[in-house]
Design goal:
alpha/beta, 50% helix, globular, single chain
Length: 361
C-alpha cells in the first residue's frame, strides 16, 4: 500500500485493502481526479468527536495518508461479509443548527457520528462537473458512489453510524439514500428570516462567499428563468442569501423522491431548539434505534447549553435574544431584500411544500 507523507511516498505492507474497508481509523478523505483514486487519512476515534468537521478542520490525524485505486476497494466491499448497519443521515440547509443536532447524537454512547466528511463534498462537486464535461459514464459513477458511501459506514464496535453531509452535498441525496432501503434521514432547515439573521452573524469572509454559493445552488436546480448565473453572482449580500435559501429548497424538492421521503422527517431548527429532547427521542426511534433510555436522554443537557462548534457557553435563550436584536437592527435591509425577492421567487410555494412533507412534529 502506498503511503503519502507530505510529498514523500513510502510503502507499508501492513495496510491492506481489507483494513481500508473495515477500519474507521482509516478515513476515506479525498478523491483524486482524473485518476479516480481515493485518499485515506489515518485518524483516531477522537478525530471524529473532536473535529468540528471532517474536512480541513480535522484534528488528531497521524499525518499518514494512503492512496488506493477504486476497483480493488469496490471488489472487496462486494465480497465483504462482515455485518455493517446502514447509516442514517442528517441532511440540512445552511446555518440551521444541524451541527448541534449531530452533537446531540454524538454524546449518545451507542451512536457514532461522522460530521461533514470532505469526501462527500468532493463527490458532490464531481457530480456538478460531470454534468458539464461527462467525465464518468453511469456505470463508473455508480461504482464510485457505491465505494465511497460504503467506506463511510465504518464504525467503532457495534455503534450505529450517523452521517451529516455538508449542505453542499444535497445534490447527491439520491446516491446516499439509494445505497440501502434501511437508511433513514432527517432534514433540518430554518425559516427565511432566521436564515438571513444567521448569515448576518457570520464573518465578512463567510459573507463574501454567499454570491458564489448562490450561483452554485441555482445551477444545481437547473438555473433561474429570469436571472442568469452571472447576474446571481453579482447580487448584494442579503439578496444572494435569499437565492441560496430558495435554491436549496428547490433542490430538496427535486432530489427527494416519494420513496426517499418515506424514510425522512423534516424539522425546523426553531422546533428543534424548543424541544431538543423530544426531537432526539423521536429521531432515535425513527432511525430504528429503539426507545431512547431516559439516562441517555438526560445527557443532552451537556450539549444544548454550548456552542456546537466551539463548546463555549451559548444557550437557546442567548441565541434568541441575539437574533431578535439583530433583526431589529437590520430590519430595513432585511425588509428590502425580501421585497426584492418577491419579483423572482415564490417563497409561499416553499412554505406550502414544507407543510406536505413528513415531519418530526
Amino acid at each position: 500500500m502506498i503511503i503519502l507523507r507530505g510529498s514523500e511516498l513510502l510503502m507499508d505492507n501492513k495496510i491492506t485493502i481489507d483494513k481500508l474497508i473495515s477500519s474507521p481509523d482509516l478515513l476515506v478523505y479525498d478523491l483524486e481526479t482524473p485518476s479516480m483514486k481515493l485518499l485515506f487519512k489515518e485518524v483516531t476515534q477522537k478525530t471524529y468527536s473532536d473535529s468540528p468537521f471532517l474536512d480541513e478542520r480535522l484534528i488528531h490525524a497521524s499525518g499518514r495518508n494512503y492512496i488506493s485505486e477504486i476497483t480493488p476497494l469496490f471488489n472487496a466491499l462486494g465480497k465483504n461479509e462482515a455485518p455493517c448497519s446502514a447509516p442514517c443521515f442528517i441532511f440540512h440547509t445552511s446555518f440551521c443548527c444541524s451541527t448541534l443536532l449531530a452533537r446531540c447524537f454524538e454524546v449518545l454512547p451507542d451512536v457514532f457520528v461522522a460530521k461533514e466528511p470532505w469526501i462527500l463534498r468532493r463527490l458532490a462537486d464531481l457530480k456538478r462537473r460531470n454534468a458539464i464535461v461527462n467525465e464518468l459514464n453511469a456505470k463508473k459513477w455508480k461504482k464510485l458512489s457505491y465505494t465511497i458511501c460504503h467506506l463511510l459506514r465504518k464504525s467503532y464496535g457495534e455503534n450505529r453510524i450517523v452521517i451529516k453531509p455538508t449542505n453542499l452535498a444535497n445534490n447527491i441525496v439520491d446516491e446516499l439514500m439509494s445505497q440501502s432501503i434501511n437508511s433513514r434521514a432527517v432534514m433540518i432547515y430554518s425559516s427565511l428570516e432566521d436564515f438571513l439573521i444567521s448569515n448576518i452573524k457570520k464573518t465578512q469572509e463567510t459573507q463574501n462567499k454567499m454570491p458564489l454559493l448562490a450561483k452554485i445552488f441555482t445551477r444545481d436546480t437547473g438555473g433561474h428563468p429570469d436571472l442568469t448565473l452571472d447576474e446571481i453572482e453579482r447580487l448584494p449580500f442579503l439578496q444572494a442569501c435569499i437565492v441560496i435559501w430558495y435554491s436549496q429548497f428547490k433542490l430538496i424538492e427535486q432530489q427527494w423522491s416519494k420513496q426517499h421521503l418515506q424514510r425522512c422527517l423534516f424539522i425546523n431548527a426553531e422546533e428543534f431548539l424548543a424541544k431538543p429532547k423530544d426531537t432526539v427521542t423521536k429521531l432515535y426511534k425513527f432511525f430504528n434505534y429503539g426507545n431512547l433510555p431516559q439516562e441517555q436522554c438526560n445527557i443532552l443537557h451537556s450539549i444544548m447549553g454550548k456552542h456546537s462548534k466551539s463548546s463555549t457557553s451559548y444557550t437557546s435563550v442567548e441565541k434568541k435574544y441575539e437574533d431578535e436584536n439583530l433583526a431589529k437592527k437590520h430590519e430595513k435591509d432585511i425588509g428590502e431584500a425580501i421585497q426584492w425577492s418577491r419579483k423572482y421567487f415564490d417563497i409561499n410555494q416553499i412554505k406550502a411544500y414544507l407543510t406536505k412533507v413528513p415531519r418530526v412534529f
